[in-house]
Structures are given as structure tokens and as C-alpha cells.
Write a structure and sequence with these properties.
560 residues; 14 helices; alpha+beta
Amino acid sequence: MVLSMPKDKYDNSNTRNGRRSHKIMSAEDVASGKKSHWPELEITGTIRNLSPQLWKMSHLTSLYLNDNHLTRLPPDVSKLTMLQCLDLSCNKLRSLPAELGDLVNLRELLLNNNMLRVLPYELGRLFQLQSLGLNGNPLSPEILSIYGEQNGTAKLLAYMLDNLAGTFTHNLPPQRPWITLEQPNRSRPHAIFSVMCYNVLCDKYATRQIYGYCPSWALGWEYRKKGILHEILNYTADIISLQEVETEQFYMFFLPELKQHGYEGIFSPKSRAKTMSETEKKYVDGCAIFFKTNKFQLVKEHLVEFNKMAMENAEGSADMLNRVMTKDNIGIAALLETKEGFAETSAYPPEVNPRQLFLVANAHMHWDPEFSDVKIIQTMMFMSALKSIMEEACHSFRPGSSNKMDLSTVPVIFCGDLNSLPDSGVVEYLSTGRISTSHLDFKELAYSECLGNFSSADHKPSEVTHSFKLKQAYESDILPHTNYTFDFKGVIDYIFHSESLTCLGVLGPYDPNYFSENKIIGCPHPHIPSDHIPLLSEFELQLPFGPPNGLPNGLHIARR
């Protein structure tokens, strides 16, 4: 047996000799206590069996076992989870363990010149594989034909993943737990209702280039839409806010399906749709709000276009024009009015039917982590627009009132995929009602002259504020993630609500053991139709004791 320095990495830009270069530690390095690090290992000779100690070297990124006499590869190879390159060429392998498919970080797998007649379908899990060597094996004509095509490695991996059916037909996810936070106060008039927030992953983004770990058939819209609809209807929320809804799918799928279950809805696509043909705009995604018609009726819907607001409030800021205005994200809002019977208990006489106004807002902020400034400014613009919507609503229902409007009398529900982590400026701003203009998320860019346009009247020059007192439905670490992909797992979806609403409970996370036991490295998955998980919260609204005299802005009388 010969132990030597590692062979070339999968990066083809390097020369073979260059990739085998190494550095020997000097006596001074050793004397100073410098630690050696060798993430690559080559074992060459007439090796027939491998020591179990090899599988304990979980730090390895490259393992070269070529030019030996190996007849089998132990399943324990799956313990080398950091491997990016595995060379098994020129051995006597007749089969491969299914566990080889667990090495999802592999970029290069060389199996040339062995005795392989079949390949385990689990190899289809190696979605990051760039180079697959199969030459010199007596494989079936079907496998060799796919492999021989242009871009054959990617096509063969897709074929194998799509045929890995047995793994996906069982083990449905366990029901997510309901987490009770408060008990309703039944000693006074109140109403209870539920809200869902869900990014459904629109069809044009659901590609194997992005989600290579998911079978093609499970990425297709015809398959996923059934799971998405099941998720939505399973929880029967009174208010549903969806992001990444394609225009055509709203009108042809979501709206007709949900109407059958007692919902009505509003929708608007991203601003780019205005410049497109009728055919093109069908595939533009946007935001939708649905509501139960037996509890709410729509008073007015609103569209907030962030690029338009950026242009109108740039105040000469080049960054506002070049960074914010060029992003066409949107927010929508639905001013709802409750219907008779909304309250579970009432202290009002039968001839009086009090109606409560609600403002439901939904937004999808820019995605790129490098544009934290854009995310926070889009959020500021949306909150500023919601204040204007609220002022218009309250004045229209109480015309001529000289009293100063109290925004807290109209409950607000703000749902969204904010593409921002819990420690971001976006969440700080929404939660506390203010943020410093020197916050790191602004990236020290020239926004100072225009940020005041989005602040409430009592703000300081050094900060931006909003007029709503908001709380998060999902506090602390209830959910470890709302977006679960191979490359990213974190909380970026939120439900915010007025302090006048009490959050009674939320839908909890998936059992983490389900993901590990079923080797789910990212979503979507055949049993989880989006890369986001739906949020669900239940709220209680306390109503004033009647008979109503001097009702607040948000409550008014509808007489029979």
C-alpha cells in the first residue's frame, strides 16, 4: 500500500500537477505549534479491503481509492459527509451501496473501469455532481445511452432521482403540533379568527437547476398544486395571504378552487406585468389575499408598487433610483369589514349589528441578501402606504369627525415573505416601530434625504418610524425555519399583528426527526410542495361592551 498526496480536485481549471502540489511544514512551523490539515487522502496499491478507521475521517473532502482491487464499497462511506471528490476507478466493483447517494456534497464521482452492471437509483440524490465517470463498465444500454447524451451526467441523475419512487411513496410527514399561547377571554364580547401566510413557490422558479434534490415529477405544477391546495384547505384559515402566485394560476386555479370552499380573494402581480404582453404576464407572480365570505366582506383593495414609490420619493438619491426603483416587488392590502355573526359573543341588542374594520396586508420583499437596504426601504414604503390607507378608511367611515384618528382601532394583520432574518433591520423596524438611519442594513448609502418621506410625523431626523404598534405572532424560536432548502434554512416569513389582537396560538414546526430520518435535505419534496412552510395563527379580538355609544373609528353600526 502506498499513501501519497491527493490527486486533482474536480475543478478543471487546475492542471493535474498543480492540483497535487503540497507544502511540507517547516521545523519552525512545528516548533510554533502549527497544526497540519490534510482534507484529501489517496490510497493506492493492491488494496482489497478498507479499514473501518477510514470512515471516521469525516473531515475528508477528497478520497482517491483508484487502482486497487476493491470488490465492494462499504455503506459506511456515507459517513464521509464532506466529500466533494471520490475516485473509485480501476477497481473490481460489481455493485455500489445505496448509501453512496447520501454524499450530497459530491462534485466528482469517478467509477471508470469497474465491473458495474447496475447503478443504485440513490445516485440521483447527488444533485451537485458535476463529473461522473462510468466508462469501462458493462452497464445497461439504457443507462449508457442517457449518459452519452449532451449534458449526460445531469440527465442521468435526473432520470435516477425520478425513478427513486419507493423512497417517496411512504412516510408522510407527521401532523404539525398546535402551540397554544393564550386562552380566550370569554368574560366579554370577542371574536376569534385565523390567518395563514404561505409562499407557494411559483412554477417558473421550481426548476431542477435550483432544486436539484427534488424529483422532476414532484417539481411540476400539476403535482405540486394538489399538495399546496391540501395545505391551504387542511387548516381552513379565515384569512389567507399567499406569495409567489402566478397570474394565470390565481385566476384559473386558486380563485375558483377557494371559491368552492367559501372564499373570495384579491390579487396583483409584480409591476413588470404592466410592460408585458397578455401571454407573458400570465407567468408573472404576485401576492394574493383570500378571506372567508361568511365572516368578511371586501370594502376596498389597494396595490402598493415599491418602484413607483421609490421614484416619487427619491429626492435626488441615485441609490434610491438605481437600487430601489429597479426592483418591482409589490404589496397589497384588503380593507375588510366583518359580517353579522363574526363575534362569538355579543353584548349588543338584536337590532344592532356592529361591524369591525380590518386591514390585511401582504407583501413579498426583494430576495437578494446583498440588498438589505432595498428590503428595509420597501418595508418602510409599505408601512407608510398602509398608514395612508388607514387614514382614508377611518375618515370615510366617520366623515366630518374632528377627533384625532387612533390607528389602533382598526386591527392590522401584516403577512409577508420579507426575505429577512429575525435579526435584520426589517424585523427590528416592524417590531419596535423605529430604526436608526445609520443602521448597517442601509450599507452607508445616500438615502438620508429621502427616508423622512416614509416616517411618521413625530420622528427624529436620525431615525425612521412607523405609526403602528405591531407584534409577531411567532415569537422567539417557535419555528427554526420557514424556508427550508439545501443551501438555506431560516426564518424569513412573518405574521405581524396589532397589539389590540391577542395571538391565541400558532402552528408549530415539522418534527425535525422526520427530515433526518427520511434524508430530506431541502424542500420542495414529494410530500412538502413548496420550499416555504405555511404559517398559521389564531387571534382574538376583544370588542367593546355595548350598547355602542361613541364607537371608535374601526367599529361602526349596520342596522337591519
